[in-house]
Amino acid sequence: MSSESLAAAARSGFSLAQYAICLNGIVWRETLRFLHQRERFIAALVRPLVWLFIFAAGFRQVLGVSIIPPYDVYVLYEVFITPGLVAMIQLFNGMQSSLSMVYDREMGNMRTLLVSPLPRWYLLSAKLVAGTSVSLLQVYAFLAIAWLWGIEPPLIGYLTVLPALILSGLMLGALGMLLSSVVRRLENFAGVMNFVIFPMFFASSALYPLWRVKETSPVLYWICQLNPFTHAVELIRFALYGQLNGISLAVVGGCTVLFMVGAIVAYDPSRGFLARRGGPGEPA
């Protein structure tokens, strides 16, 4: 198909069925890639399970947890860190998805996607939805293993947590997508991942309640409060017990929009980061 016919198709608009076919194709591609990379699925579970089985057992007596919302009674330390480990799965998956975008850009596959006559924002959004869908599979597999370990939130919590997982997955995936537009080469992305993942994870409420952080370091407490990952953890924590944290919902929703808009602008060849590199698929 010539460029003139592609432009004409773009001007004529697309039906909902055509948008659905595009979304289905991108999601199916990411799902097949994930299923064929079994080591990626295993690695996604090993990280949180190590924290759950080893770290939590060693620090159960040292890091006791008082009665704080959404818990009505004293809980074991492994129960407290489970929502943080769920968010960690989504954080690593978001970075992994953005790593694949850097790889596709270097190999030239990104050009095939982005030159589609469909709107660029829709293609990137479909890519984000695909990555979030993969993270949901990983999260529920982890929650099933955690249930066997004795971590049993209310059964309704497995359903009420789904919207929180979708929103937090979109936020962390959009952050990874924004970073993928900045990183020039594949070999540089590992350093960027470590620079983003570990500060976000440790400076949050994933492993310890914020009131304990406030007792030892008020400065670190405010850093944790300003960390979007903290609010993703709290949104998941409350939703897992059938409750809603309004502040965390607002922060996560706002950051999702902000990161996604930034990624769409960055991937715009006329004004984003890629404009200074000759477009996707070309060497930097």
Structure described in brief:
With 284 residues, the protein is mostly helical.
Q: Helices and strands in order, then pairings?
A:
Elements: H1 3-12, H2 16-36, H3 38-59, H4 77-107, H5 109-114, H6 120-148, H7 157-182, H8 186-202, H9 210-216, H10 218-226, H11 228-240, H12 246-266
Structural domains: how many: 1
Distance between the termini: 29 Å
Unreliable residue stretches:
1-12, 280-284
Number of helices: 12
Shape: globular
How big a fraction of the residues is strand?
under 5%
Which structural class fits the helix and strand makeup? mainly alpha
Radius of gyration: 20 Å
Characterize the quaternary organization of these chains. single chain
What's the mean pLDDT score?
Answer: 81
Helicity level: over 70%
One letter per element, helices H and strands E, the order comes to HHHHHHHHHHHH
- Report on the biggest sheet: none
Total beta strand runs: 0
